[in-house]
Predict the 3D structure of the following.
Amino acid sequence: MSSTASRPPSPAAPDTGAAADEPLYEARRQIYPQSVQGRFRKIKWILLAITLAIYYLLPFVRWDRGPDAPHQAVLIDFPARRFYFFFLEIWPQEFY
């Protein structure tokens, strides 16, 4: 019987001469956005245009509320703590 245990083979040393000549990083490749077309993309842009038009034009719409009330259709009045949405007038105590 052999008294010495068998040793695992030692890994071979890497060849460092060839790796020194190669660059460590790859050159940066350009990334370009792709043009997307289709029915849902067109619907998205139409809805975006409509909602932006509503957002920017709605403050200029006038709504008669009677005397001593603002004549703006949609108004969020923080100092007076009131919200006006067309025919609705919402006070803070209406939110729980």
In short: The first strand starts at residue 74 and ends at 77. The chain is about 25% helix and 10% strand. Residues 37-94 form one domain. The radius of gyration is 36 Å.
